[in-house]
Amino acid sequence: MESRTFDGDGFDGDVQDASSTRTRSPARNRSRGPVQIVENDGIEVTRVTRPLMPPPRPVFCWLAICMCTGTFILQIQQNGWMFQPFTCPTTCAGAPCNDDGSPCEANVMLGPSVAVLDRMGAKNDPAIFERGEWWRVLACNWLHAGFIHLLFNMAAIFQLGVPLERAFGFWRIGTLYLLAGIFGTIVSIIFIPHVLSVGASASVFGLVGAAWADVFVNFAARGTLRGSGLCGLITSTVLNISIGLTPWVDNFMHLGGLVAGIVVGVSLMARKSYDRHTGERRHTASQETCALLATLLLVLLALGAACAVSSAELRDEMRRCDVCDYLNCVETPWWSCCVTQLSGACQLLNRTLEGLVQATCNMSGVAPFSKTCRTSDEWCTFPAHTDINARVYVCGVLCSSC
Predict the structure, then answer these.
(1) Domains of the chain, earliest start first
(2) Which tens digits make up the pLDDT trace of 55-95?
(3) Catalytic residue among 254, 336, 343, 385
(4) What are residue 39's phi and psi, to 5 degrees?
(5) Are 364 and 126 in contact (CB under 8 A)?
(6) Dihedral sign (CA 305, 309, 315, 321)
(7) For residues 328 and 192, is the Cβ–Cβ distance under 8 A?
(8) Backbone angles phi, psi at 363, to 5 degrees
(9) What is the rounded average pLDDT of the residues 115-131?
(10) CB 45 within 8 A of CB 39
(11) 201 is catalytic
């Protein structure tokens, strides 16, 4: 006669000596807490069962959603409890204005003014480096340009973050979320200076990176992709990165968050599996190797980010990367990437008698200036006040000088 020990997942354990067991009558079960003894046909089987623990509650994700929502309410309060209009009704001397002639600032995201975002902590390079407002690196991840922006990001946190936190817990996902947001902001600071940026998108892309890390370290590193959801992950990642190639989205924040999410995720999210020989839960050698390499890469990324933010010369050298521009915006017949170069206010004036269109540029980080173009040029026209895309294009070309 023999006795076999099983773990909770049904893997065979060590075979015990027959002298340590006793023969019982067939088909009798005895339970001793987590240990269940099953006897059948003179064979005594000891099955070790582990109580099923409920998955962790997604506390961090709900905290993040509540904090972003609360911060957005505070933004609207700072904006006088009003949303900026979706479009401005008319122009006055080439500048957008309301019907009564007062200045108008539109916000297609249905949110506060740019001044409110800047005051509350938007990513602003001159404020960070010249005035030492480093708190913006973290604060900008909790601000949103408008209600539409907030809605999309909160839906992404709910869809991606909640399942990940249930699987990997509060501290792992919380750490990953915060580090991805900070690293994404630093990448944006390096490659697109003078552009105000807000939003939880870097952290959201960190969650996308965490999903990729789960595939790498808990499926591929164990020799299988079955059940990993790889196809859906590829589709959603490509779609969201493609959206970031438009001139109105800070894709460097997205890509920085994605990279940080993958690296932090691989270093923290390896799951243990049962060893068929020992019955113990342990990491595989491949998982341990991946986690070690990811940890080393994380240290290198942290050192690189620290060097970049502390050296203006290094930042200038990195900004000379012409190929990197295509990671943030790709020119198409429908938009110009010039608008990604600077952010701020632009007023257009039609100097008809001289055949000129003048742009008065009040851009963040630089002194106000004016530029003109000749209407004989095909692209240089004075757009109607309702043609927002055309006005953005002309302003982008003149104010960014690209």
Answers:
(1) 3-48 (no CATH), 59-328 (1.20.1540.10), 337-400 (no CATH)
(2) 788 999 999 999 999 999 999 999 999 999 988 887 776 66
(3) 254
(4) -115, 130
(5) yes
(6) positive
(7) yes
(8) -100, 150
(9) 92
(10) yes
(11) yes
Q: Whole-angstrom Cα distance, residue 256 to residue 261?
A: 9
- For position 252, what pLDDT does the model report? 94
Contact 229, 154 (CB under 8 A): no
Cα(184)–Cα(228) distance, rounded to whole angstroms?
26
pLDDT at 9: 40
What pLDDT was estimated at residue 89? Answer: 82
Question: Which pLDDT score, from 0 to 100, does residue 331 have?
Answer: 81
Q: What is the mean pLDDT of residues 366-370?
A: 68
Looking at residue 274, its pLDDT comes to 72
254 is catalytic: yes
Closest CA to 71 of 136, 150, 171: 150
Q: pLDDT higher for 90 or 131?
A: 131
Q: How far apart are CA 24 and CA 43, in angstroms?
A: 8
At residue 16, φ and ψ (nearest 5 deg) are -85, 160
Catalytic residue among 3, 188, 197, 201: 201
Residue 263 tokens read as 């690296």
Give the closest residue to 160 by CA, choosing from 226, 234, 210.
Answer: 210
Q: Tell me the percentage of the chain whose pLDDT exceeds 70.
A: 78
**108 alpha carbon, distance to own chain's centre:** 21
Give me the sign of the Cα torsion angle 18, 21, 22, 27: negative
132: which strand partners?
A: none
In tens, the pLDDT along 183-237 reads: 999 999 999 887 889 999 999 999 999 999 999 998 887 777 887 788 889 999 9
Cα–chain-centroid distance for residue 129? 24
Give the model's pLDDT for residue 32: 46
CB 141 within 8 A of CB 253: no
